Fold this sequence. Notes:
It is built from 2 helices and 9 strands, in the order βαββββββββα. By secondary structure, it is mostly beta strands. Strands 6-7-8-9 form a 4-stranded antiparallel sheet, with no helix packed on it. A 3-stranded antiparallel sheet has the order 1-4-3. Strand 7 and strand 8 form a beta hairpin.
Amino acid sequence: MVEIQIADLKADFTNSSFVLKDEKGLEVPYQIIRDNSRPVSLLFQASVPASSSVKYTLRKGKPAEVKARTSARFVPERSDDFAWENDFMCYRLYGPSAAKWNYSNGMDLFFKRTDDLMVDNFYHEHLVNNNSYHIDHGQGL
Length: 141
């Protein structure tokens, strides 16, 4: 994993978009880390053989869309849970306020039948449409 400070790149990620390419000209997905919406660093996965170096190029352009495979967030619509997921499982930690009404607080697992991100949908269906995430409606539980 490589992290480069935006200031070292001299690239304006606030007003422009960029494409990162490896030495073969293949596009490399990257992520911008922000602090209060200000871009501060660029992260990407590098493949560098032992005892060697590689060159990556950053140019203005529209990067290809990358399907998100992970997600994490606080869930204020259900007390103060924290939920996260990858393309295999969803997880939930009960927040401190849940201890007032649920003495078995801890961590839950949601088993998924899809590699799509589902935790937001599980909560929405449970809280808005009264479709319990404890019952498999076809995408997991």
